[in-house]
Predict the 3D structure of the following.
Amino acid sequence: MTHFNIDTWRAWAPGLDSPDDWRTWQHAPVRLVDNGEQPDVSFLPAMQRRRLSRLARMAFHVAWPLAEQHPHLPMVFVSRHGETPRTLAILSDLARNEPLSPTQFSLSVHNAIIGLWSIQRGDTSEMTALAGEADGLEQGLLEAITLLGEGAPAVLLVVAEETPPALYAPFIDDVPFSYALALLLTPGTDWKVQLQTGSGPRSEWPHALNLVRALSGGQTSLQHHWKNRQWNWSLDKA
């Protein structure tokens, strides 16, 4: 069993940004129309903004406000699918025997976002990029809690997925719409997560969105299943 506190959190999806937006959505969750809306990253210089993909903008948008009071903050970034539009563009160039863009390639790798984050913030704290399965949220949580156990006063956990290109739609069925969630984790005992062996129904929503629903609605427990793993979340409000 793991213990931790969620000091604060922030989430984004097309048309959903503020806590009030998410509270409204959690009462009647629906699949959002994703027209490629770009989250606001105006806190960055224009030259730097141009280097960011949509996935990177999503991650920066939710994470930056949480990190403002922490100049040195370890980070765990989780994305199951990563930069699918960039990857598809590179594969398309290969299929047409066209030369590859070194910039496109360097920004398509899974740890590119945390590299850009480190550069923009001037922060050389430990940072990790994970590509978990459907329970990537929990896998990233374990990594973050390990950092807390090693003495970090706070750790930033970011989970982000972008709606994949249409070509990938038959193969990627766990991204109902683009979303990003950032959690500022600190040592404590408010939240507990326990892993058990056991199967169960697959949730309609990704684990990260289910957690946003819980946080928005004051829910004190939730359960996530993936394959033979059962993750039990509980909040001690005492």
Q: What stands out?
A: The longest strand covers residues 179-197. The radius of gyration is 18 Å. Strands lie at 2-12, 75-78, 127-130, 155-161, 179-197, 221-226, 229-235. The mean pLDDT is 93.
